[in-house]
Design a protein that fits this description.
Keywords: cAMP, cAMP-binding, Cell membrane, Ion channel, Ion transport, Ligand-gated ion channel, Membrane, Nucleotide-binding, Potassium, Potassium channel, Potassium transport, Transmembrane, Transmembrane helix, Transport, Voltage-gated channel
Distance between the termini: 20 Å
Number of domains: 3
Order of helices and strands: HHHHHHHHHHHHEEEEEEHEEHHH
Family: Belongs to the potassium channel family.
Bound molecules: adenosine-3',5'-cyclic-monophosphate
Main location: membrane
Helix content: 55-70%
Number of strands: 8
Pfam families: cNMP_binding, Ion_trans
Strand content: 5-15%
Radius of gyration: 29 Å
CATH topology of the largest domain: Four Helix Bundle (Hemerythrin (Met), subunit A)
CATH architecture of the largest domain: Up-down Bundle
Shape: globular
Largest sheet: 4 strands, antiparallel
Subunit structure: Homotetramer.
Structural class: alpha+beta
Number of helices: 16
CATH superfamily of the largest domain: Voltage-gated potassium channels. Chain C
């Protein structure tokens, strides 16, 4: 009996751990506390590293900085170990066996940043030399903040999506630098051999000019040199504008795609809200958060605690029921059963097309339903019919028990 209970408890613990570390803290005080503590530690430890570089400050507050470093490294190490252990619960790796899920997580960009945050401390066990590179690695923990900032995640996504266009502008820019350095080498070599004795030496001037920096340490003195410089400056403006434009446009698109605006018509289209008056629609709009997800993403995982319900603004999802999948589309909602019954999620819900969801957190739902009991009655009716459908289905309980066992065997079986 104990043996059977153990994996179930372990899976629950692993899910909870993953939720606390990775949920974004929505609707859960403990998760918000964990996130708050980690963000504070990142900021404190980065500030300590920076201030420590000043010899006077280091002499006065060295003990405090050392204490911060110990606490930070200990906390980040525990965090890394827990993230690795709970990786099989990650939505992106939900279909992989536990070991593969952990390997995939360990190779992800955010896990590598997590590792870099603790690496200097781990390396210092083996290395006694004062390696400057360790200082840079300690500062890399600053990027741990990216996990908590949708804005930084958007920038990374944009750079990733536009990497080919950006690489192309980089190549063209390099070509311009090369060409202009060669031209300058030809026209200024005799007048200023100390600055323009070769093409590589002339490139220092070309890079400064193309980047519109112009330190002024190297300037053309001949008429031909000034003409080359003028052309280089104009080309610099044009060439630098290109990547800026590419990133700005892609960033605007990414923001729109990720946090699409919750519009009146979107809310009013949902049959559930069709009878609401204008002020009630305005009220619910304030509570709804927008979320976009790609096909295949697991929106709701069976057995997880419930903190929100979802309205489908666009796209389709599949409810993975024991008796076969059910599809829900635009205007329909899901995730209400666990919220109303105060149970864990009763089924997996997966996006099968790109989807746009309107998310309503549990607290806001209850506030809204107190003021709009009619909507509450209709949500309750739908929840009841879904629960009844599940109960009527062939050997419902048996199938659920089988699924639980299969789920646990596949998730908890491996180390
Ligand atoms: N038979 C069903 N038909 C449609 N949706 C369902 C059915 N059973 C469960 N669901 C939805 O799947 C969701 C899984 O999470 P919840 O249990 O919170 O709420 C559940 C319902 O919204």
């Amino acid at each position: 009996m104990r043996d059977e209970a153990q994996p179930l408890r372990l899976v629950r613990l692993r899910r909870r751990t993953h939720f606390l570390l990775d949920s974004g803290g929505v609707g859960d005080r403990t998760a918000q506390l964990v996130h708050g503590a980690l963000v504070t530690l990142v900021i404190l430890s980065v500030a300590a590293v920076v201030l420590e570089s000043d010899a006077d400050i280091a002499a006065r507050y060295g003990a405090i900085f050392a204490a911060i470093e110990y606490v930070a490294v200990a906390a980040f190490s525990v965090e890394y170990a827990l993230r690795l252990w709970s990786a099989p619960e990650h939505r992106l790796y939900a279909d992989l066996p536990p070991l593969k899920a952990r390997a995939a997580f360990a190779l992800s960009a955010s896990a590598l940043v997590d590792l870099a945050a603790i690496l200097p401390a781990l390396l210092s066990f083996f290395l006694t030399a004062d390696l400057r590179i360790l200082l840079i690695l300690r500062l890399a923990r600053f990027f741990k903040l990216a996990r908590y900032s949708p804005g930084i995640r958007s920038i990374v996504a944009v750079l990733e999506a536009e990497r080919k266009a950006l690489a192309a502008t980089g190549v063209v820019l390099f070509g311009v630098v090369l060409l202009m350095a060669a031209a300058m080498y030809v026209v200024e070599r005799d007048a200023q051999p100390e600055h323009f004795r070769s093409i590589p030496a002339s490139m220092w001037w070309a890079i400064q000019t193309v980047a519109t920096v112009g330190y002024g340490d190297v300037t053309p003195t001949t008429a031909a040199g000034r003409i080359v410089a003028a052309v280089t400056m104009v080309m610099g403006f044009v060439m630098l504008g290109l990547p800026v434009g590419i990133v700005a446009t892609a960033f605007a698109e990414e923001i729109h795609r990720r946090d699409f605006v919750v519009t009146w018509s979107m809310v009013a289209r949902a049959p559930l809200f069709a009878t609401l008056d204008a002020s009630a629609i305005a009220e619910i709009m304030r509570y709804l958060r927008a979320q976009s997800l790609p096909p295949g993403a697991l929106v709701v995982r069976r057995g997880e605690p419930a903190h929100s319900m979802y309205f489908i603004a666009a796209g389709e999802v599949e409810i993975e029921l024991a008796e076969g999948p059910a599809r829900l589309g635009e205007g329909q909602f899901f995730g209400e059963v666990a919220l109303l019954r105060k149970t864990s999620r009763t089924a997996n819900v997966r996006a099968i097309t790109p989807i746009k969801l309107l998310v309503l957190d549990a607290f806001d739902l209850h506030v809204f339903l107190q003021r709009n009991p009619e909507v509450g009655r209709r949500i309750e009716e739908v929840a009841a019919s879904r629960a009844e459908f599940r109960a009527r289905s062939r050997d419902g309980d048996l199938i659920e028990a089988e699924i639980d066992e299969r789920d646990i065997a596949s998730r908890a079986g491996a180390p």
